């Protein structure tokens, strides 16, 4: 009854920004990025890829409370690029990587469907399923 509607956990309200940056004054070349309406899925993905990025000295994330859909990501660089530039580069790399994965998946799915059609065309009126019926796993 007191729980928010589920859509409020992932839809931004009018005027809300998805990402805000706060420069950490006590540490050089360090910023905190607050991502609204996100959870461990994106926080872990970004922090792990940031750790592998050149010029990034430290990256990590935290979630203050499980009922608050907000992730804080801290990034520190060596000074040759800003933390914002590091985050943007990693995001662009991930978009390209997952785009490629999607294209490869669609290609394999199409080939599998084509192969299944060929197998089913050779079956003369038999029942679907069973060995070679196309309904079995990959």
Automatic annotation (TrEMBL):
Keywords: DNA-directed RNA polymerase, Nucleus, Transcription. The keyword Aminoacyl-tRNA synthetase does not apply. GO terms for molecular function: DNA binding; DNA-directed RNA polymerase activity; protein dimerization activity. Residues 31-102 form the DNA-directed RNA polymerase RBP11-like dimerisation domain. It is found in: Nucleus. InterPro entries: RBP11 (IPR037685), RBP11-like (IPR036603), RBP11-like_dimer (IPR009025), RNA_pol_Rpb11_13-16kDa_CS (IPR008193), Rpo11-like (IPR022905). One of its GO terms (biological process) is transcription by RNA polymerase II. Gene3D superfamilies: RNA polymerase, RBP11-like subunit. GO terms for cellular component: RNA polymerase II, core complex. It comes from the Eukaryota. Belongs to the archaeal Rpo11/eukaryotic RPB11/RPC19 RNA polymerase subunit family. HAMAP family: RNApol_arch_Rpo11. PANTHER family: DNA-DIRECTED RNA POLYMERASE I,II,III, DNA-DIRECTED RNA POLYMERASE II SUBUNIT RPB11. This is DNA-directed RNA polymerase RBP11-like dimerisation domain-containing protein. It comes from Thermothielavioides terrestris (strain ATCC 38088 / NRRL 8126) (Thielavia terrestris). The lineage of its organism: Eukaryota, Fungi, Dikarya, Ascomycota, Pezizomycotina.
């Amino acid at each position: 009854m007191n729980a928010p509607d589920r859509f409020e956990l992932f839809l931004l309200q009018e005027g809300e920004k998805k990402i805000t940056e706060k420069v950490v004054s006590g540490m050089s070349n360090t910023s905190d990025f607050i991502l609204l309406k996100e959870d461990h899925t994106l926080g872990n993905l970004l922090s792990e890829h940031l750790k592998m990025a050149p010029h990034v000295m430290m990256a990590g994330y935290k979630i203050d409370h499980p009922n608050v859909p907000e992730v804080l990501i801290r990034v520190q660089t060596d000074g040759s690029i800003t933390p914002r530039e590091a985050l943007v580069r990693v995001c662009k790399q991930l978009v390209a990587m997952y785009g490629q994965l999607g294209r490869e998946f669609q290609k394999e799915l199409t080939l599998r469907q084509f192969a299944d059609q060929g197998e089913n065309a050779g079956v003369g009126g038999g029942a679907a399923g069973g060995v070679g019926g196309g309904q079995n796993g990959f």
